[in-house]
Amino acid sequence: MDLQALKDFVEKAGEDLVRKANLDALPEKFYDAFILSGVRIDSIEPGRVLCSMTVPPRLVNTFNSMHGGATMSLVDILGSAAILSTGSKSTGVSLDISVSYLTSAYAGEEIQIDSKVLRAGNSIAVVSVELRKKHGGEIIAQGRHSKYLVVSSRL
């Protein structure tokens, strides 16, 4: 791909869709709702949140499999939910986040997302988030997210 074609690809991606919608008019927190719509909490306890969902067409890529960015967002958002389940007053800010992609989940496929707090201290929390196929249990992705829990000033 020549450089101009690459530039056009990046700058004009989804141009037809954008013309039909006013992206600046979308409400705040739209992204979380876009990712989480359809997620069901199956079990919740301190330090663990187990969810399931059917992969919706809006979260798939050109191969009809769940987009890696959607997977990363689920690790981020549902990992933060697990932190909140410990009684933390804040989900904090990301220090690092990583995901290992092991297989694909496709539109219409039922998946489970298991978020577990590995450590929740006064200033740092670490979570592990695993996505599995609901039928058969095959691991789709494993994520780890470390967060700095913002400490309020004592002044």
UniProtKB/TrEMBL annotation:
Domain of life: Eukaryota
Domain Thioesterase: 64-139
Keyword 4Fe-4S: no
One of the record's GO molecular function terms: fatty acyl-CoA hydrolase activity
Catalytic activity: a fatty acyl-CoA + H2O = a fatty acid + CoA + H(+)
Keyword Hydrolase listed: yes
GO CC terms: cytosol; mitochondrion; nucleus; spindle
InterPro entries (UniProt xref): ACOT13 (IPR039298), HotDog_dom_sf (IPR029069), PAAI_dom (IPR003736), Thioestr_dom (IPR006683)
Keywords from the UniProt entry: Acetylation, Cytoplasm, Cytoskeleton, Hydrolase, Lipid metabolism, Mitochondrion, Nucleus
Compartments reported by the entry: Cytoplasm, Cytoskeleton, Spindle; Cytoplasm, Cytosol; Mitochondrion; Nucleus
NCBIfam families: unchar_dom_1 (TIGR00369)
Function summary: Catalyzes the hydrolysis of acyl-CoAs into free fatty acids and coenzyme A (CoASH), regulating their respective intracellular levels. Has acyl-CoA thioesterase activity towards medium (C12) and long-chain (C18) fatty acyl-CoA substrates. Can also hydrolyze 3-hydroxyphenylacetyl-CoA and 3,4-dihydroxyphenylacetyl-CoA (in vitro). May play a role in controlling adaptive thermogenesis.
Quaternary structure and partners: Homotetramer. Interacts with PCTP.
PANTHER family: F19P19.27 PROTEIN, THIOESTERASE SUPERFAMILY MEMBER-RELATED
Similarity remark: Belongs to the thioesterase PaaI family.
Protein name: Acyl-coenzyme A thioesterase 13
Source species of the chain: Spirodela intermedia
